[in-house]
Amino acid sequence: MDRTQLLLSLSFALFALGLVGVMVRRNALVMLMCMELMLNGVILSLVTFAALSATLSGAVLVFLVFVVAAAEIAIAIPIVLLLAKERHTLDVGAWSELKG
Amino acid sequence: MSLENVLLAFFAASALAGGVLMLIARHPMRVALALISAMISLAGIYAVLGVHVIAVFQVLIYVGAVMVFMVYVIMLLDVRDPSFLERYGRAIVPSIVVAAALAAALAAAVGRGQVMTAARIAEAHPGRVAATFEVQPFSAEFIGRYWLHFELTSVLLLAAVVAAIALIKAGRRRDG
To answer: What is the pTM of this model?
Structure first.
């Protein structure tokens, strides 16, 4: 198996694992971490292509994505903490009345 | 099989194992540790690929900042939370089927396509200089060409800090 194919398959596998985690797990923090796993899978494919085509702008783009991910976590965790404070649980089932 | 390929396979297997453990582990702290191990394996993959700057960023930003924050929050929480005991919701079988189908479709597309190699890219774009990902050329490119983006990230981070403070204040105001 070619190296690029191996890395891209790993990236898809990580994305799929994260997707299963987001859909299956009940704990809001665990769901957040599974989203991070999905993002890591996508970043892996981005880095693979950047390294393959030897473009520095790809590496710069990865850095910018890292910054966005850090900002996202800085917002998402206070939201999760406020949700947990309101219902005294991290179980997303406690918020099932939000379903449309 | 060269040493690089052996290392790549090892780190790839380790990252996959971390991802699977995240689904199985019950306590969020174990999930966080599994995610950290997966992220460090990915940093190893980036280092093997020669993208050292990204490998360092992966450890510094993801493991050092994001996951430490996450672990800190987990330690703040109540351990008697019922969501720590019951791992899975109801839609477990359909979601696994959907995700497996997605991964299989993507992997099949990759397997069918033409293998892209650095040589083939160089052939398609003659006269292009291949970059190396060491710290010095990366920094020169970053500060030389992308300085505006770099400055804008600081604005984004400032906005995130302000938004986080505003969220906490809004929560306090509703309580009191």
So the answer is: 0.90
The ipTM is 0.92
Check CB contact of B39 with chain A, cutoff 8 Å.
yes
pLDDT category of residue A38 using cuts at 50, 70 and 90? very high
CA distance B68 to chain A (A): 11
CA distance A22 to A28: 9
Select A3-98's CATH number: 3.40.50.720, 3.40.50.150, 2.40.128.280, 1.10.287.3510: 1.10.287.3510
Residue A17 CB neighbours (<10 A):
25
Tell whether B15 is covered by a domain: yes
Measure B90 CA to nearest chain A CA, in Å. Answer: 7
Nearest chain A residue to B150, by CA = A64
